[in-house]
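Lab notebook, design round three. We kept the backbone fixed and only want residue identities now. Task for the bench partner: fill in a sequence for the structure below.
Input structure tokens:
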């Protein structure tokens, strides 16, 4: 405890006293992250500049690969070598797993003083705290049940945003008639599963919860799950032949450039549209995946702080504090495409999609419809998530039938639990 207080006191010195400028100069954070696309890098720059303004220098450790699959492998190697980075972009159950292993630091001094508990939704606190202590600083709230539609193509198809499966299929058929690729997609397991999040959710919150959060075998093996897989097969017929392995941001670019009609993707896709100078409701339209309005399959990017040498802790605490600053939450999230992690931040500076994200999250938070994203690590630990990824991707690529996928889902999840 005494050690901890002295750490907090050191942080206060770094934050507060201009005369300690020299000491500040020596402060740095090494940050491991996977924000390497145009929109992601632009958002990261906001954080980097903010910290540099506070005398904290930034040592960049980018590991490309959407949803952080590769980043987590690199992280394991660093921790195993006894040299963890100062701060790591991380999602959900991965954070809790590192906390369980005793690898993470303690942000209570900053979090308590700034009363994070009052403004960060409980759904996020379950992952940002462990054993009653703050271990990570949530930077945003993303969600996966979105569609990003090219506005010109939509107008040509009659202008109506689809609200159910039949309307979605009708729209995709019209895109096909227009001679564009109906669905822009990158065939990577995490992207396939991002679509699966939304498809499963469209059968109802209860179904999603029982399947992905409770991992109920009867639900995983149900006829409804088979229908969900059948829908995945149908959606696959609307992709171009070169989808395999494509990065998600290149799929976003296809919609931006009008080569494709729409993309099913989390709202980090909006960061790409914004970076390309595109305006919602003029150039593109954001809408919830048909049948999922009101519910939010969320994933919040958090910076988990690793246990590091004592002299590095003050910079960690400055970083944590900077991340939760309301003005920073606005500046960062308007660029990233996400909603703030705090519920008390004004939406005034956000575009219509940002305003919608914020309103949807507020509503879902009240109605209990904030559901952790399976695809992005907020429903299950990594082993279970990866088991689901594997089945979803093989079925999506036609290697197994829907029937086989349902059976394999039950056994793979059971083995991974
Ligand atoms: C998500 C992450 C987003 C975005 C996306 C694609 O898991 O939460 O911030 O980076 O991956 O890389």
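Proposed sequence:
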């Amino acid at each position: 405890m005494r050690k901890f207080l002295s750490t907090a006191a050191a942080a206060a010195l770094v934050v507060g006293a201009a005369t300690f400028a020299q000491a500040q100069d020596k402060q740095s954070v090494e940050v491991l992250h996977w924000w390497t696309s145009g929109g992601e890098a632009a958002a990261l720059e906001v954080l980097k500049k903010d910290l540099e303004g506070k005398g904290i220098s930034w040592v960049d450790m980018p590991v490309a690969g959407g949803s952080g699959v590769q980043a987590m492998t690199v992280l394991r190697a660093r921790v195993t070598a006894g040299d963890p980075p100062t701060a790591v972009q991380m999602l959900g159950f991965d954070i809790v797993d590192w906390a369980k292993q005793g690898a993470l630091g303690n942000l209570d001094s900053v979090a308590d003083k700034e009363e994070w508990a009052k403004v960060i939704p409980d759904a996020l606190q379950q992952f940002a705290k462990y054993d009653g202590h703050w271990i990570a600083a949530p930077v945003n709230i993303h969600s996966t049940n979105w569609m990003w539609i090219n506005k010109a193509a939509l107008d040509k198809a009659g202008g109506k945003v689809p609200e159910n499966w039949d309307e979605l299929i009708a729209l995709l058929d019209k895109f096909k008639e227009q001679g564009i690729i109906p669905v822009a997609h990158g065939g990577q397991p995490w992207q396939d599963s991002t679509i699966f999040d939304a498809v499963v959710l469209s059968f109802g919150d209860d179904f999603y919860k029982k399947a992905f959060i409770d991992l109920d075998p009867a639900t995983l093996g149900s006829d409804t799950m088979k229908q969900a897989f059948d829908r995945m097969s149908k959606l696959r017929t609307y992709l171009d032949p070169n989808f395999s392995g494509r990065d998600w941001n290149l799929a976003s670019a296809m919609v931006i450039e009008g080569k494709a009609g729409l993309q099913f993707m989390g709202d980090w896709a909006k960061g790409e549209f914004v970076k390309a100078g595109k305006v919602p409701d003029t150039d593109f339209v954001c809408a919830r995946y048909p049948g999922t309005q009101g519910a939010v399959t969320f994933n919040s990017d958090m910076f988990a702080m690793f246990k590091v040498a004592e002299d590095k802790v003050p910079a960690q605490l400055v970083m944590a504090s900077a991340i939760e600053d309301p003005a920073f939450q606005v500046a960062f999230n308007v660029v990233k495409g996400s909603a703030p992690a705090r519920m008390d931040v004004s939406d005034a500076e956000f575009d219509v999609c940002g305003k919608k994200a914020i309103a949807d999250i507020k509503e879902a938070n009240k109605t209990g419809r904030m559901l952790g994203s399976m695809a992005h690590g907020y429903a299950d630990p990594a082993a279970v998530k990866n088991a689901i990824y594997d089945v979803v991707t093989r079925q999506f690529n036609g290697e197994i039938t829907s029937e086989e996928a349902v059976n394999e889902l039950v056994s793979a999840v059971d083995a991974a639990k």
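Keep this in mind before ordering anything: The first helix runs from residue 2 to 16.
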